[in-house]
Specification:
Elements: E1 4-7, H1 13-17, E2 25-28, E3 31-36, E4 39-46, E5 49-53, H2 57-63, H3 70-77, H4 84-89, H5 100-109, H6 115-129, E6 132-135, E7 138-141, H7 152-157, H8 163-175, H9 178-182, H10 187-194, H11 202-211, H12 223-233, H13 241-252, H14 256-276, H15 280-292
This protein binds a DNA duplex (13 and 12 nucleotides) through helix 6, helix 8, helix 11, helix 12 and helix 14.
DNA sequence: GGCCAGGTCCAAT
DNA sequence: ATTGGACATGGC
């Protein structure tokens, strides 16, 4: 995979794609296969160079936000000592520019769910109603556009649960052009406009603003962020989401969204690593077993 | 086998 | 303006 290569300093493909903002990728070794809109592509990072097929440099620049001044982002966030661990954990992590409709649908599906399940739900929708895509010998499906997707009953058959109704209604609003209008609005108004969509309230709206519309000040408060803020910034005291958002805006300003993504990725990664690591009891048990034989 | 999940909505204070 | 429970499934 070399046909297109582009220079990408202060960028980390793995952290960027695997930080939970995007659900349309698979990995084999260091090579990622991904779908964004109607584009199926493969991409790999070699140092500060990106190699790709199915994607040109212009597309990668846009989708991967290579135009963000990450040196400035990291320098400004690093003034906050409580972000150091999260920043050091994933240097080069960038916020993507996703397709607004795909992002809206994915984060409606994220409600009371988890990343493996969301990924599966999105893949099911694509396989069922999306346009077929090819790249050499590779086949995949685009995420279905508004109008291509099934009705609520059809969506329920894909095991979306109560999210089926939300997605069906969101599709109608998207068909009416709501998501294009939002691009023109200042962030607060865009947020209110998104929250007209059933299934989109504060948290999901902030995800869409951050991951699809480049509103880097948006600060989605989910269970992970709630917990990491409580533990790290509020001495374990419970704080209402509204106050957490206000805190983030006050503390990190127009980069609150970047702070959020570094904190989210770091807290989630370290928590999962702890969960998967053998407990001290298991280690003791294992040692005892090995000495028995 | 339960608990809880990248929440939202609605009804009852 | 806040608060609690229902919502459909499935990871772990």
């Amino acid at each position: 995979m070399v046909p297109v290569s582009t220079y990408a300093p202060l960028f980390d493909l793995r952290h960027t794609l695997e930080s939970g903002q995007f659900f349309r990728w698979t990995r084999e070794g260091d090579a990622y296969t991904a779908v964004r809109g109607l584009r199926l592509f493969r991409v790999r990072q070699r140092g500060t160079t990106l190699e790709a097929q199915g994607a040109d440099a212009w597309f990668l620049q846009e989708f991967l936000s290579l135009d963000h001044d990450l040196a400035d982002v990291e320098r400004r966030l690093r003034r906050d000592r409580k972000l150091w661990e999260a920043l050091d954990f994933a240097p080069g992590l960038r916020l993507l520019r996703q397709d607004p409709w795909e992002c809206t649908a994915a984060f409606i599906l994220s409600i009371a769910s988890n990343i493996p399940r969301i990924t599966g739900n999105v893949a099911d929708l694509a396989r069922t109603w999306g346009s077929p895509l090819r790249l050499g010998g590779l086949a995949a499906h685009a995420f279905p556009r508004p109008g291509q997707i099934g009705d609520e009953a059809g969506l329920r058959r894909l095991r979306l649960g109560f999210r089926a109704k939300y997605l069906a209604q969101a599709e109608r609003l998207a068909s009416a052009g709501l998501l294009e209008e939002i691009a023109q609005l200042p962030t607060e108004e865009a947020r209110d406009a998104l929250m007209v969509v059933p299934g989109v309230a504060e948290k999901v709206a902030d995800c869409i603003l951050l991951f699809a519309y480049g509103r880097l000040e948006a600060f989605p408060v989910d269970t992970w962020i709630r917990r990491v803020l409580r533990e790290r910034f509020f001495r374990g005291r419970a704080v209402p989401d509204r106050a957490l958002r206000a805190f983030a805006t006050e503390r990190w300003g127009d980069l609150a969204g970047y702070a959020q993504q570094y904190l989210y990725h770091w807290s989630r990664s370290t928590a999962l690593a702890r969960r998967n690591a053998p407990s001290p009891a298991q280690l003791r048990g294992r040692r005892r077993c090995t000495t028995m034989y």
